[in-house]
Design brief:
Blueprint (H helix, E strand, L loop, with lengths): L2 H26 L1 E3 L6 H17 L4 H23 L2 E4 L6 E4 L2 H20 L7 H4 L2 H50 L6
Antiparallel strand pairs: 1-3, 2-3
Length: 189
């Protein structure tokens, strides 16, 4: 086999390796800042909104499909967020998020499905059968984009919602620590 025959597999394997490495790190836990959870969903909403400006279908079937994608994506994001463990670190100054293996499996299944579809379409060189359905493929990709954006938005909202009590606890611990530090100081005249 020539090296060109392996080329279509290099990028997906690289993505899987990088995401797998990153996910394995997040299984151990990483600090999050609930105040910035809106940034990633906002970026995706803007990008998808810009991509829809030129090609959005508005027939009833398309709108129903878009609505279903948003609902299903929101549900998937909510479930992914529910499978994340949130806690304070030992000294109570940072909120730590640990990813569940369920989220990792779901991500890899979605990625594998996307890659299989891409391989079916011939990696950019569509067969006549697929070329005849290319407007449908564009529509399906728009539905998938809405699903992903809804998933990111719901996941960020649920993590933010679940982190609020931890933020209050963190503030209370920091205030108590500062009060304890100043309690031992001599009073100034």
């Amino acid at each position: 086999m020539s090296p060109n025959q392996y080329a279509p597999y290099i990028a997906p394997l690289l993505v899987i390796a990088i995401v797998g490495w990153r996910m394995s790190r997040s299984l151990k836990g990483r600090p999050i800042n609930p105040n910035y959870l809106w940034v990633r969903p906002a970026i995706f909403v803007v990008l998808v909104g810009l991509s829809f400006v030129a090609s959005l279908r508005t027939d009833v079937i398309a709108l129903a499909s878009f609505a279903a994608a948003v609902v299903l994506g929101g549900g998937a994001g909510y479930m992914l967020a529910r499978h994340q463990e949130l806690s304070l670190n030992e000294d109570g100054t940072k909120i730590i998020s640990k990813t569940s293996p369920v989220g990792i499996v779901l991500f890899f299944l979605l990625f594998a499905g996307r890659y299989a579809f891409r391989m079916y379409t011939g990696s950019g060189q569509m067969s006549d059968k697929v070329a005849a359905h290319s407007p449908q493929i564009l529509f399906y990709s728009e539905v998938a984009l809405l699903f992903i954006v809804a998933m990111f938005c719901a996941q960020a909202w649920e993590i933010w919602h679940r982190a609020r009590p931890l933020v209050a606890e963190r503030k209370a611990r920091i205030a108590a620590k500062k009060a304890g530090d100043t309690a031992g100081l001599p009073a100034s005249d």
